[in-house]
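Summary for the steering committee. One of the milestones for this cycle was to obtain a three-dimensional model of the protein with cobalamin bound, which we needed before selecting residues for the alanine scan. The sequence and ligand used are listed below.
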Amino acid sequence: MGSVTQRPIKVLLAKLGLDIHWRGVVSISRMLRDAGMEVIYLGNQFPEGIVAAALQESPDVVGLSTLCGNHLSLGPKVVQLLKERNMEDVLVIMGGVIPPDDREELKRRGIAEVFGPDTPVKQIVQFIEEKVRGRDPS
Ligand code: B12
């Protein structure tokens, strides 16, 4: 797909499972786009659908959004399925209403970072850029 130092960072965003709280992910989609990233929003998807889309789109980042309490059951499944498809290099992040204790558990299970409702968008953009561009070998 070419060096990520020369092209926009590609982000695949999804609402996890049947979560209906769509406002946050839609605003995050726009903010990441405005920060110069290429954003694809999948709408509601289960892990299998997210990973099928990732196989086709080769994103740098998969962003999962959930506020309905399915983060532990479905979030790590995305990480696991990406690994099974040899896409463990994809950065997986999550946002939404996630209890603090569960954030640590999610990180242990491969979610790189969890962003709650009060996170400034600058912090999210900075995190993605550092992680993605920082590991680009070229
Ligand atoms: C509006 C609302 C609803 C509306 C949703 C309307 C709609 N379609 O959007 C309605 C009334 C339908 C609703 C329903 C439910 N809700 Co509700 N809802 C809310 C409320 C009041 C606000 C959510 C919101 O729009 N916030 C504004 C947006 C902009 O913020 P955000 O989504 O959090 O997004 C920000 C960050 O989280 C982050 N972010 C979000 N996604 C992502 C993704 C990535 C990749 C990144 C980096 C960042 C990121 O960035 C965003 C911008 O800052 C919250 C309370 C609250 N304070 O959060 C409860 C809340 C989320 N709801 C809750 C619950 C329990 C439900 C129901 C399950 C209730 C029920 N028993 O039916 C159902 C959900 C059913 C389902 N299948 O999803 C709980 C969740 C509890 C939890 N997770 O621990 C909350 C927290 C209320 C509470 N205090 O109990 N809800």
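Key point for the committee: The radius of gyration is 14 Å.
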